[in-house]
Amino acid sequence: MTRIAVLDDWQRVARVSADWAPLMARAEVSFFETPFSSEEAAARELAEFDVILVTRERTPFPPSLVARLPRLKMFGLTGARAGLIDIAGMISRGITVCYTGGGPSASSTAELALASCSRRQDAFPPATSRSAPVDSKRRSRRVRRGYRRRNCSPARTW
Q1: Nearest CA-CA partner of 122 in 144, 150, 141
Q2: CB 3.0 to 4.6 Å from 147: which of 72, 105, 123, 138, for a disulfide?
Q3: 0.85 exceeded by the pTM?
Q4: Domain range 2-99, CATH architecture
């Protein structure tokens, strides 16, 4: 049976955001809700999977990790750019790589991620919303000081 790993579901929304029943009827699907502690841990946990689906590039996939995944046949990611994932190496090994299309701007994903991660209830006054004016200098200072949403985790860089 095909084994599928769904990684980086730190917010625990992947399982409830789609109807996985048709896929689960044909394959074993495992959800990983916590990040791997090291490349060694990732290699050990993912070695037996045929398909890996990731949320952006929270888990890095350097050439050294890809080489340790002998059963990997397909790799899917959200977005088209992933600096921590060896996409070229996967393709050269015959692994099918699938990704979603990007927005109209090369920076649109980064801008949305920054805006999403920088909004936190206790970091900004309640009046701050999409319709209220935003003090961008104040927001920038708060982002630099590390204020972010509690459930918006950075990428791992072992």
Answers
A1: 150
A2: 123
A3: no
A4: 3-Layer(aba) Sandwich (3.40)
